[in-house]
Amino acid sequence: MTTQTTAPQTPSTPAKGKPSGLIGIPENLGRALATGGGILTVVSTFLAWTWTDAFPGDLTVYGYPGGLQVLVLITGALTALFGLASYGVKGLRWLTPGSADSAIKLAALAAFATAWFTIIAISVNLGGLANLEPGGWVVAIVTLATVLGALSLPFERPVTEPADPDDTDWEQFRHNTRNKLTVFKAAFASSEVTPARKLPAYAEILIIVAALALGLTVFTYGIGTEYDELFVGFMITVGFGFAAVTKAGLVARVSAITAKHRNVTMIGAFVAAAAFPFTQSDDQYATIGVYILIFATVALGLNIVVGMAGLLDLGYVAFLGVGAYTGAMVSGSPSSPFDIHLPFWASALLGAAVAMVFGVLIGAPTLRLRGDYLAIVTLGFGEIFRIAVLNADGTSGPDITNGSNGISSIPNLNIFGFDFGQEHSIAGFTIARFANYFLLMLLITLIVVIVFRRSGDSRIGRAWIAIREDETAALAMGINGFRVKLIAFALGAALAGLAGTVQAHVTYTVTPEQYQFAHVVPPNSAFLLAAVVLGGMGTISGPLVGAALLYLIPAKLQFLGDYQLFAFGLALVLLMRFRPEGLIPNRRRQLEFHEEAEAPTVLSKAGA
């Protein structure tokens, strides 16, 4: 009698999915449809989209794009260029050192979303599709065909596990939905960026200058959008467009160049920012610019505390208030209890010093705490400061801050005979009050950036990184954790106080209501922390970009009325869900959230 045995079957590793597109169109046809559609999208912007100029932007003119048509033209041109580059057209291959197909898809989505938003806005505002001219129908059909062609481009499909037949219907639905999302994300995955050939130093500097000029142009256009529909279209274009350029690998190429020329990049960035007031015909948008700089500077100071040292501070706006009240009290204001008028340099140093003292006094007894407990204590300090200055009105307490009335009638600065409250003519350009303060605040921001950069590269900066990553291990290696954290707290407070002295003169009045934990109008502690997390903790450019967005977007979403904060909060939730490391993260933090990403060969001290 023989016994037949069967060898146990070992599960074989499933092979990778066959490359195919999200839509069942042949690759050659889809690529041609996407590329040709991008070209036709550009052509369609030279047609009239509506018959009446009642819709803002005047989309009634043939041969001259206006308003939202310009944004559709830009996205159509991007789609066409990426499509031609994917064919290997000579002279365009440098546009896609990364994934050309993913860039085509995102650029096509940008054109589609902007164009269809415009068509819907015209129909809603003017009362129906009958208000569309043939050009409106053409752009709608062309952009739809373009995005269908782009989504048909093949990609490496990930292997997904089938649902367990024993699961309930709901569990199977959730499993299948996750599989579909995984496949959809893979359709937009980026590939490894090919190394760039070595360029001479002057060519790399020219690339940096071009990138900064483009950034200034985009910012100036966004801040100067004249009506609500244009701003929404601008945000759609910038969001999808930046994603497309990133997937194409251009952002990685430029980042590598700027990393080689850090000093040139920093100087160029501030020169570009200084040119902003000279691009404006009046002081309207310089007003927004100076408030963005105040917000961004304070956020950068908070980045030392939160991003570098890993200390969660929920009352940081109080240090801004300490600097503002200190500067107001020695400004010569008739509302000040002290009959003192110090020059600006003295009041700025005094504001920074007083804020630093408060930082030491608050940090010394509390920095032995960690995590949530430290956050609760700092939140309490912020509220104590606001209530204290509110009660120092001569009735509930000593007469120092005038209570809820605050310190008003703060005079404009006058530095070496330069009156910041008057218009001045520079090289044929006239700059007004807020433009003057914008340039002064830009200088303060430069000082804060230098302090942040030098601190991060120093021995104390490396100690902050060690404390942030693992405080117990840092203490075991001999780092004095309490001393290191106290220095971070004091330095962050001093930088916030320095910005506060300028804020007092910009706003004319300093009141307790300006320094709450959460408020509709920034800066406040909640918005400051959001700016650091949104932009990217531990970086220089991250909080600057985050602060600009957090200040600019709510100001432009006022047309939503009661739904303004809802839309703003929803956008933040989605961003933190899909990009938790921030808009401009350092490399170490990016790897923490995306473990499947390839680790870099070298990490700097800050992980950038």
From TrEMBL:
Name this protein carries in UniProt: Branched-chain amino acid ABC transporter permease
Record-annotated membrane-spanning stretches: 32-52, 64-85, 106-130, 136-155, 205-224, 230-251, 263-279, 285-307, 314-332, 344-364, 371-389, 434-452, 486-506, 526-553, 560-578
Cross-referenced Pfam families: BPD_transp_2
Keyword set includes S-adenosyl-L-methionine: no
Keyword Transmembrane helix: yes
Topological type in the membrane: Multi-pass membrane protein
Keywords: Cell membrane, Membrane, Transmembrane, Transmembrane helix
Protein localization: Cell membrane
PANTHER family, per database record: HIGH-AFFINITY BRANCHED-CHAIN AMINO ACID TRANSPORT PROTEIN BRAE, HIGH-AFFINITY BRANCHED-CHAIN AMINO ACID TRANSPORT SYSTEM PERMEASE
Residue ranges of the region described as Disordered: 1-21
